[in-house]
Specification:
The chain is α+β, with helices and mostly antiparallel strands. It has a domain at 81-118. The protein has four helices and two strands; from the N terminus they run αααββα. The protein has a two-stranded antiparallel ribbon with strand order 1-2. GO terms for molecular function: hydrolase activity, hydrolyzing O-glycosyl compounds.
Length: 118
């Protein structure tokens, strides 16, 4: 790998040459062209909200509404066993499901699939 790094300094050029590397969904050209952008919201959204004029200020942000989850092998490799437990799910009187993550996942910035308070 050392010799490849000398020829191609960016990993995207030698790890996967079949795709074009885009710096990120937040670079200048994807927001308003002046480097202004916002991040999120990152929890799952109501599908209708995407069609509201005031939902997102800029035309392109593929990260809106996405929730990333680590695979089980990564969780086991990076967290102690008490962090492996899935969240508790509580049904609220209004019908929404509230997720209650364990303290380890909460510490690492757990993002719920649902947002009952919204």
């Amino acid at each position: 790998m050392g010799s490849l790094r000398k020829i191609c300094p960016h990993p995207s050029q030698y790890l996967d040459g079949t795709r074009i590397y885009v710096q990120g969904s937040k670079w200048d050209g994807s927001a308003n062209g002046k480097g202004d952008f916002t991040d999120g919201p990152n929890e799952i959204q109501n599908p209708e909200d995407f069609f509201e004029d005031d939902f997102y200020n800029y035309g392109f942000n593929p990260a809106v509404g996405s929730v990333g989850r680590s695979v089980a092998a990564t969780i086991r490799a990076t967290m102690p066993p008490e962090g492996w437990k899935i969240p508790l799910f509580n049904k609220l009187p209004n019908g929404y499901i509230e997720e209650v993550p364990n303290p380890t996942r909460e510490y690492h910035g757990y993002i719920s699939y649902s947002k009952p308070s919204k």
